[in-house]
TrEMBL record, chains A, B:
One of its GO terms (cellular component) is cytosol. It comes from the Bacteria. The keyword RNA-binding does not apply. One of its GO terms (molecular function) is glycerone kinase activity. Residues 7-327 form the DhaK domain. NCBIfam families: dhaK1 (TIGR02363). SUPFAM superfamilies: DAK1/DegV-like (SSF82549). Keywords: Kinase, Transferase. This is Dihydroxyacetone kinase. One of its GO terms (biological process) is glycerol catabolic process.
């Protein structure tokens, strides 16, 4: 295993130190915790998210005005503990309640729910929005139902904008549940990630092989086959996602997300193919985003997220100004 | 070779299409060219940069208000041709002249100078600032003297701010030459990049081996050795860079740059080690940046750039607001 690290036990601690020291004007770390919080808190419902580490810039990169109030980092590919989530909630709460945005994994669901109960004893009201945008497979290694992946970043943005505009906790919960239904994602991998503590890739693909539908922790996808040209990869993902909508939206947003080891050059080529296919379907793309947003350590691959943007206010929320490290 | 591409001949064309289609509100592509230009041109000296492709988001990602007016993309690791550079200059010029920011490679120097002569026939005044921040080696595979690498992005930012503020062509040339002297970079590689047309990694490193001083086209560095902990890698680069300054600056900026295949997690850990070392030296770090800015396709590795920020106006220039895809 070749990684720029020191001791594997110190990875999260040192990463959080490096991150918080690099953006002192924007965020700070709650001392002795796994929590990154924004410096300026306005009176609004607080948004807290988090999950296992290894998906950087998720979630700390999305802490800031117009997005998250705080983010909690677990160990690599491991849910943060309830006490750490509670610290984030205590820090973030401005008396208006806390909305928790959770990717749909069994461990995360349990720990965020437990944190919610603990926070209730602090008189912090909260609700949970569970993101399950990954339509590749039903039920998976760490998940009942669908997994939560890159679409989560769009949920951060849309709810962050609403929270800043004064939406109540109930309104945010409703909006979140509605928005999650509009978002669908599938990923594909060319090469698996290596978890530092394990020291070797999570799965093996042959020299000319890819896997469709791999999860962001290397969970199994739905098909392996020989590597195809980008336009054929795009065709597979676009058609699978579009056919999952009850009614094909006429206006959509596109997020092409790099998995950590995939150069931007390839992400732009893939985006070009995706846009050509959507044009053929007469779908107007009114929002675009390309880059590494929800990674899987050094995995090579991309995910494609589509979001129904027929509701113009959702598009405006995605386009609103934010002050974060990574949006 | 596993890459998300179609035909290797179409890589640059499709990348530029994907990029320009993804940010229509910010930049556009000059038809039938390799040029990405900003949508809104104000009356100011225009800044044009470019170079071989494979370093994304450089340079198109830095086109926008407060940075570059236009960027020209060559083939992978190959200088753009003079006629393409000329197109960028024609598009960018607002009658105040064009400053060309060129990384120090023989091909780039030749082609940008030729473009300069061609533009002169169009009555476009221009000057060139050559960036040679890579102190790892003197003379290299494609370079006489030192190579130009990640520090170029800081030059874009500092000169972009000055140009927007109304600096003249002569003033920008002077400022550029001064600033370049303040910036020093060294990279290291864990794994070489694979040029699509070649199909295999540019060099081979053993399972436990790294190379210090590798260039962004895989040019040889100055030493190979076994992979060390991040803090030892940081120590090597920090001490080598600091000792290259005639007088050690008391205030500095730090750019930790990922080479394309290196996760952000590792970049933050490396940044943490760099900051610890600078603190030991009583150097105050007043500007930080971490991420993939000057990549080398899918190379695994990082580069460290330090900039002397004792002149407060340089720090302010780095912190000024910009509207670009990738700053």
């Amino acid at each position: 295993m070749k990684k720029i690290i020191n001791q594997t036990d110190d990875i999260i601690e040192e990463m959080l130190r490096g991150l918080s020291a690099s953006y002192p004007g924007l965020v700070h770390r709650i001392e002795d915790s796994r929590v990154i919080a924004k410096n300026e808190n306005k009176k609004q419902v607080a948004l807290v998210s988090g999950g296992g580490s290894g998906h950087e810039p998720s979630h700390a990169g999305f802490v800031g005005d117009g997005m998250l109030s705080a983010a909690v980092a677990g160990d690599v590919f491991t849910s943060p503990t309830p006490d750490q989530i509670q610290i984030a909630m205590q820090e973030a709460d401005q008396g208006e309640g806390v909305l928790l945005i959770v990717k749909n994994y069994t461990g995360d669901n349990l720990n965020f729910e437990m944190a919610q109960e603990m926070a209730e004893m602090d008189d912090i009201q909260s609700k949970i929005v569970v993101v399950d945008d990954d339509i590749a497979v039903e039920d998976s290694e760490f998940t009942a139902g669908k997994r939560g992946v890159a679409g989560t970043v769009l949920v951060h943005k849309i709810l962050g904008n609403a929270a800043r505009s004064g939406a109540s906790l109930d309104e945010l919960k409703q909006l979140g549940d509605d928005v999650v239904k509009k978002i669908k994602t599938i990923g594909l991998a060319l090469h698996a990630a290596t978890v530092p503590e394990v020291g070797k890739p999570g799965f093996e693909l042959a020299e000319d092989e890819i896997e469709y539908g791999v999860g962001i922790h290397g969970e199994a996808g739905y098909r392996r086959e020989k590597l195809q040209p980008s336009k054929d990869l795009a065709k597979e993902l676009v058609s699978k996602i579009l056919s999952d909508y009850d009614k094909q939206p006429q206006k959509m947003g596109v997020l092409v997300n790099g998995m950590g080891g995939t150069p931007l050059m390839e992400q732009f080529i893939f985006m070009n193919d995706v846009l050509n296919l959507l044009k053929e379907q007469n779908i107007e793309v009114t929002f675009h985003k390309v880059g590494n947003y929800m990674t899987s350590l050094d995995m090579k691959g991309v995910s494609l997220t589509l979001i129904d943007l027929e509701d113009e206010t959702i598009k405006e929320a995605l386009e609103s100004e934010v002050t974060t490290i990574s949006w």
